[in-house]
Amino acid sequence: MGGKRLKHRAGNNSGGGDRSRRNNQGAGQRGNYASIPTENALYESFYKQSSLIPSEEWEDFWASLQRTLPTTFRFTGGKAHALGVLKTLKETLIPHLVGIEWEGVLVEAPRALGWFPDSLAWQLSVGKSTIRRCPPFKKFQNFLVAETTVGNISRQEAVSMIPPLVMDIQPHHVVLDMCAAPGSKTAQLIEAIHANEEAHVQAAIQGETVDDASGGRPAGLVIANDADYRRSHMLIHQTKRLNSPNLIVTNHDATMYPSLLVKNEDGRKEYLKFDRILADVPCSGDGTARKNYNVWRDWSPLGAIGLHLTQVRILVRGLQMLKVGGRIVYSTCSMNPIENEAVVAAAIDRCGGLEKVNILDCSDRLPELKRRPGVKGGWRVMDKDGSWFSSFEQVGEADMREARLSRIVPSMFPSEDGKSDEDGRRIPLERCMRVYPHLQDTGAFFITVLEKRAEIGAVKSEEHGRKKMAAIARSKVGTPSGGGKGGEVEGTREGAELVPTAAASEQPPAPGSPSKRKLTEAVAGTSSPLAKKPRSDLPDPDEDDDSDGGVQLVGEEAAPGIPARTKSSNPPKKDKAPPAEEPFKYLPADHHVLENITKFYDLSPRFPKTCFMVRNAEGIPSRAIYFTGYLAKQVLTSNEGSNVKFVHCGVKAFMKQDVQEEGVCPWRIQSEGLSILEGWIGETRVVRAKKRETVRGLLKELFPKVHAEGQEGDVIGEIEEKVRGLTMGCCVLKVEATEGEFEDRMVFPLWKSRHSCNLMLPKDERKAMLMRLFNDESGIKDSTNKNSHLARDAAAALVASPIDHKSLMAQAIAIARNSTYIPSAFCVGAIITTPGGTILSTGYSREQPGNTHAEQVAIDKVLSSSSVPKEAAVYTTMEPCSKRLSGNKSCVERILECSWIRKVYVGVAEPGDFVENSGKAVLEAAGVGYQLVEGLEGECLGVARGEGGKEGGKEGEGRDEEGVCLEGGNVVM
Ligand SMILES: C[S@@+](CC[C@H](N)C(=O)[O-])C[C@H]1O[C@@H](n2cnc3c(N)ncnc32)[C@H](O)[C@@H]1O
Hints:
This protein is of the alpha+beta class.
């Protein structure tokens, strides 16, 4: 169709086809965004006066910042698979989207981001109304929704895709993602570890590789960490679709990340060092104004001031744990130099200067990405009221006693001739990368790649800065520590700096819990019992012998005048210890259950059977058996019994099925684990197909009949004979690439019942495949008669992946924490999902102006998206309200108006603080399913009453909104 213009007539005059400059067109996914004024005088004057943007570019820069961000998405998963899905887009959809005129305006076709490798990331600038009403775009949108639902496409902000691309990750690398939730970058790191693994696995299956400890899978490992327990579960949800056995999720404060042990080749334990680290730190997020209206509403220079020290500590801790020769990428979505260049320079300085750590020149990386060099010097620090300071000395002169300034520290300022290390060598800050909105129509981002050149000895503490501050205070204020506020400020800092490093072996039970008590003890010369308990005999290589290594005390409490949201510099507050995780217990390779499985599936003796584990203290395979990579196993077992908080590892390989029949193996292959197992399964449990029609039949018909010999039907034609000969139970369907049929091979788990078979795929996935492979949008057939033996067989075999309601509720709790606490209403979080558990939208109390309820916000987002699902479920941390004191429509009424909401999962019933709620009764009476998700009631109530939430601001600003889960709160495009 090339450049030919296709005219599509609009049904009415509303809306436009393109994104106008300042009207926030396309912002329907963000609810009332269009009505939010994109103005903030202090924010504007800060960046105008900071001279970061050349004056001739200012207009363009500012106008770009005020425009709504285009939608960007990435093809995810293994490269071959991602390229396959991309091919469908390019060949079947894009040609119909080029040169389209809609309502008299030429509509921009979706386009690949030139700088992203292999064209696997795309940008869509067209407005929502065009997408909804213009037929070719509607079809494109159906494709996006279907592929997003099954995890082949992930919405991610363009600039957020950059850091993993400059990390140069190899499959054998040990990678740490220090601040990982919600996990969009972690997904990229995992994909990099698994790049090109298919060929290696094939070689291992053929017996060509010697090192098959992981069955040809990559030797590397990604450890993804987040200090916020609930967000760490968001991370698990987000990365689940990648089915990586090489992922561990931990829950620690990154400023004091524990040194992990691992057994070396001689079986002795040593400390794990990382080849690559990502420090995508919490930041003020002021580069996200294009998608996060809170920036316009709340921006203050104190956001950055409150975060600087935490950012430095995270980066320093990362550098300590890095291998010599390894790289750490530091990134933020803030434009402020004190969160960026100043942090990089301070970390280099504290680690011993450029001899130990240098900034890599990445100017040859991603050549099509437009960027600006880092700022070499000359930046200033702005106070809350807009006063500027060019040097720390000026702060002292201005008002050292003002507690509100107590967070301003010397490392926030450039030295006179730019930043230099201890030996006076200039730190090449221009090698840092700054991305601005007007350069390529993106958000703003800061990225720096640092290389560790030599082992770092004792890390310099903030002593230097403290002394400097103290000297200034003395000279300006008078007495060293007594009398007046000046003394108090200094005294506080002194105490904080005296607290020793919390080494891995001395982790307190909950992250983020270095407390005032500890501070008091340290100052008083006592120490906690925990601090005395060594976890191993090894000297900790990362342990500082002076007072810093990340103990978070200076920034522990916001200084007066600093809004609570800047407290995100601290590890998120813990109201109580998070629930204990089930332990990870590896099964001996000769465990009788594994032997049974091996026999049934004729599993190759060379498959690494020592890497199967279960999640219970007794080590009993009762429900699920997981598979992990070899190094993941080493890390989990080497740190068993320590205080390291592992919250996730392993891919579900087998699930136990209730089967009555004699001789049937109850352990079915879980689709997550299929790609790991399939090559190693013997021919007795393999069914081979070639024809497109066979796959189509299996996708369309839920339970195709397996006929008796001589009565073959046509649904599963070519495989019927083989399937008939199989004993009941699970097997593997392999569809080979064949000329004239499929170009790529595919593998599915298949359940053979007595009279039927069933492709073990969730309905969402079936629909997406029907659309992608056959352009078939007509849906799925279930021709079983409910009372027939076929239906009974089918019911027994129905094996869609179970949804983890608890994990979704944990995410809803995390979302609820965004609510601003007010005494007259609860803080609630809500998520709307497809029946398969894919998140469609999120909402929290008061997210939209007024006392808006979480369910209301989430529903509005779905309703304002371009497609409303046929079926959906709501997860809400508290029973939906049936009555509102304001007289506004209740959440129950809103839910009932949406006939597509079939089920409501609730974290806790509403206590009678404000009104008597009969939400449950009304919903049930109306036929809407209602289920309490047990085990999180206390957390739901706590968050509802403001524990761990915010009093007047948003943590991390727009950063919370990154990734599919939270990005604009909506994945429905
Ligand atoms: C900018 S977001 C990370 C975004 C993520 N890298 C992604 O691409 O999806 C920052 C994260 O840091 C976490 N965080 C805040 N303080 C932390 C700390 N001290 N240690 C570890 N994580 C922290 C927050 O919970 C938040 O999830």
